[in-house]
Amino acid sequence: MRLPDAGFRRYIVVAGRRNVGKSSFMNTLVGQNVSIVSEYAGTTTDPVYKSMELYPVGPVTLVDTPGLDDVGELGRLRVEKARRVFYRADCGILVTDSEPTPYEDDVVNLFKEMEIPFVVVVNKIDVLGEKAEELKGLYESRYEAKVLLVSALQKKGFDDIGKTISEILPGDEEIPYLGDLIDGGDLVILVVPIDLGAPKGRLIMPQVHAIREALDREAIALVVKERELRYVMENIGMKPKLVITDSQVVMKVASDVPEDVELTTFSIVESRYRGDLAYFVESVRKIEELEDGDTVVIMEGCTHRPLTEDIGRVKIPRWLVNHTGAQLNFKVIAGKDFPDLEEIEDAKLIIHCGGCVLNRAAMMRRVRMAKRLGIPMTNYGVTISYLHGVLDRAIRPFREEVKV
Predict the structure, then answer these.
(1) What is the 3-state secondary structure (H, E, C) of 127-158?
(2) Domain limits for position 91
(3) Are 268 and 402 in contact (CB under 8 A)?
(4) Most C-beta atoms within 10 A of its C-beta, which of 117, 119, 275, 302?
(5) Could you tell me which residues come within 8 angstroms of residue 44 by beta carbon, excluding any fewer than 6 positions away?
(6) Measured between alpha carbons, how far is residue 34 from residues 9, 52, 75 in Å?
(7) Domain edge (last residue) among 268, 298, 314
């Protein structure tokens, strides 16, 4: 498994019935008293978050949840709040101290439904004695899961927890940037507009990434502005293998590039490299279903000062309203921190930026959360190409991965 970059934090949900020792387990794992422990069932009333370094996983945030067997109206609300945490989870830990009950079944079904990998921890082995091994076999056969035996009270059995979690965490496969599209000697034309959005004196990360990838592949990288593209195409004397353009000028570039030359956008390349391009293309077609009053979330991976004609906050909303004819509500969520569930759960569509400041693991966690919530999620480049009628052509270089 490829471990996450140091800047990416995994969320680990600790779940189970009341009074099985979830809080004691979490306190022992963290090495601090972060959760209140008592002999009374239902002591934990709200999710408790604690960030730490868990070897060999790296940075994680543990979430201690209220017991999922809480009772009464207040208990029902606590359980609902606990379940909502699952949408953010990268993996789960089911804590128990006895034979499986319908509550354990419920937690495991929730993990499996949301495709959350999990381990089972049988706690209180100091009390259970020989019965602990019997429970281990029972849980392994019932849930086909890895089972660990621990005593939070005596601090036993915790040495292998990090290793076990690292083994079940999903690894993000290595996705090529341009390496599978170009070879040595190929000509790659990069269309880079210089407008108000272009940083003074430098190029943005996706443009630099494409140039470096072309050089690493022994290809020829030719960088032009959109106004010079037609002249270059007519006079270069060499057919390009690939043209990559900024999304905002994709319509003009598509008209200047012959149909037999592959064309895409920097944002689409980024969405494939860091996210789930097939899902983004599938989701973008949900634009046709937007109606008056629907909420569209514009999500950005970084924080920046908006420009007068900001692409995410001004242009895309304007194009969407013009395309759909609907009165839409737009909500902007910016920053590298993971968004709260409450910020996005009412959205009919999420449109994410290219995510150039996020690593693939961080972007895929956002994608997985959107999928679990049943919210279509696409990105800037896919959206712009779709609204300008050139999406099928812009994703053609990836025809084997995406339905064109």
Answers:
(1) HHCCHHHHHHHHHHHHHCCEEEECECCCCECC
(2) 8-166
(3) no
(4) 275
(5) 22, 23, 35, 36, 64, 65, 66, 67
(6) 19, 12, 22
(7) 268
What percentage of the chain exceeds 70 in pLDDT? Answer: 85
| Both structure tokens of 101 | 């009950």
Confidence of residue 308 (pLDDT cuts 50, 70, 90): low
Among residues 213, 235, 268, which one ends one of the domains? 268
Task: State whether 226 and 312 are in the same domain.
Answer: no
Residue 401 to residues 28, 252, 280, 382: CA-CA distances in angstroms? 45, 26, 12, 15
User: What is the spatial distance between Cα 380 and Cα 307, in angstroms, rounded to a whole number?
Assistant: 16
Tell me whether residue 145 is in a domain. yes
**CATH code for the domain of 362:** 3.40.50.11410
Instruction: Name the one residue in this structure whose structure tokens are 């959350």.
Output: 116
Tokens at 355, concatenated? 């995510």
Q: What's residue 3's pLDDT?
A: 38
Say whether both 93 and 242 belong to one domain. Answer: no
Mean pLDDT on 16-42? 71
